[in-house]
Amino acid sequence: MRTIDIQTTQKVTVNYQLATFWERFLALAIDLTMLAVFLGLFNLFLLFFDQGGAVEIVRNVIIAIVLYFHALTCEIFFNGQTLGKLALGIRVVKLNGSKLNITDCVIRWCFRLIDVFLSCGAIAAVTMNSTNKGQRLGDLLANTTVIKSRSKLNFKLKTILAIKTTESYKPQYPQVKLFKEQEMILVKTILERVKKHPNPAHQKALNDIVDKIVIQLDVTKPKDKVGFLNTLIKDYIVLTR
User: What would the pLDDT profile of 200-211 be if each residue is shown by its tens digit?
Assistant: First the structure.
């Protein structure tokens, strides 16, 4: 499985698995299937109306908008995911770690015609397999790629089993359950980086994320920052699993 390192805005490098060609192809197939179902239901709904010229025009306009702009609209409003990508747990991300913006989505959308439809996916397959970051032409121009978003907190089994339930372990920071899994993955990644490479950049990232979490949780800033973050992760596992 190919992976990629993406540096976040906090200057922390996070490793992700790249989505495969077949995962992206299946996501597209799901999108097209959903479109076919929608159009079928939409046409069925229109049978209840008189099939005059005005209805026909409205029908064609709505169908055209849905067909041409559904992928663009979904990726803009759903953070790089269409319904198919959401179902498979993959999404579009920027390689520089910044947030995906409308321009990026438009560029990718424009090149779908060449990458996918006109070439029957051949150009997308060739470019994705020939680039280290699994990019099609639209991705190369938008500086994006598609990753697996269903990351996990990869703790050792013995560590998780040692943390049983709230009956045997009392979380110190119960409000941590409001955090997103991706945020806790970032915390874990920072801890691993500091442990392996305790350089100034990673130490700064550690200090910055502790400062942010302290404000979010409204707690006193800890002296042992590593211990504080480890406790947060332990609390998160107990409260959310």
Answer: 888 888 999 999
Helix (H, G, I), strand (E, B) or coil at 156: coil
Burial class (CB in 10 A: 0-12, 13-18, 19+), 206: buried
Tens of pLDDT, residues 165-201: 555 678 888 888 888 887 888 888 888 888 888 888 8
Whether the full predicted model's pTM is greater than 0.85, yes or no, is no
DSSP β-bridge partners for residue 148: 90
Amino acid at site 25: F
* Cα dist from 87 to 30, 73, 111, 203, whole Å: 8, 17, 23, 37
| Helices within the chain (DSSP H only) | 21-46, 53-77, 83-88, 102-112, 122-130, 137-142, 157-162, 181-196, 200-217, 225-240
Spell out the residues 6+ positions from residue 119 whose beta carbon is closer than 8 angstroms to its own. Answer: none
pLDDT tens-digit readout, 68-124? 999 999 999 999 999 999 999 999 999 988 889 999 999 999 999 999 989 988 999
* Angle in degrees, 0-180, between the axes of helices 181-196 and 200-217, rounded to the nearest 10: 150
Structural domain boundaries of the chain? 3-148, 157-240
Tokens linked to 211: 């400062």
**Residue 123 has which token pair?**
């150009």
Relative orientation angle of helices 53-77 and 102-112, to the nearest 10 degrees: 120
- Where do we find the tokens 């192809």? 25
